[in-house]
Predict the structure.
Amino acid sequence: MRLATLVFLCALSSVLGEDVSGRWEGSIQIPGREFNLIVDLDRAAGGESWVGSIIIPGLGVKGSQLSDLVVKDSDVSFAIKGALASERVGQTKLKAQLNGAGELTGDFLQAGNSAPFTLRKTGPPQVELPRKSTGLGKDFAGEWKGDFELNGYPRHVTLTLVEHGPNPATAQMVIVGKRTTNAPIDLVIQENNFLTVQSQEIGITYEGRLRKETGEIAGSVMLGSLELPLVVKRTAATP
């Protein structure tokens, strides 16, 4: 009898897991506002764990990876990796349960506040896998400086790009305002004259285009849903 029960529970868990796999769309009901929410969930290679990504257009979250993703029976919980996170509010988390109507219902949790959401499956999963850093051309390698303004205060940016031959590039970004932030960069991508630099840990992305005629990279720095113009000029080339 115990063996039959164990087999039944394992089978039920597997079915519920298959039900959770997919693209889920709906909205978060924040007082006074409503945000569209898209979550993609799928089993990782081998089927032993789960992977996922999330899109919240109104908050500038575009395919961010999920961390601490746990699917247990009909319960799903995860955190958003990097996006919407800060030292002050910590990570943003979502907890949900698959109900009898085939919906994922739960709470969007941030800085001690919660907002309900309901998601319905709209199709197969479209998980955005993590992007990988590329090599870097010598036109980009070196130290660049520029400024942007946030909430009426200037922010001074120093971006150092380091090329490693055929290996992935690395970078450092230091932002000086009311305080100094050394953003840990985990992604550097060069595509022709376009550059993307990202710190998932603190949710900062810089995208720009190299203008060889002026010796500057013109683009925007993205902080959550904010997109602010930032032009950086080279101050020193990598030896």
Confidence is low (pLDDT under 50) at residues 1-17.
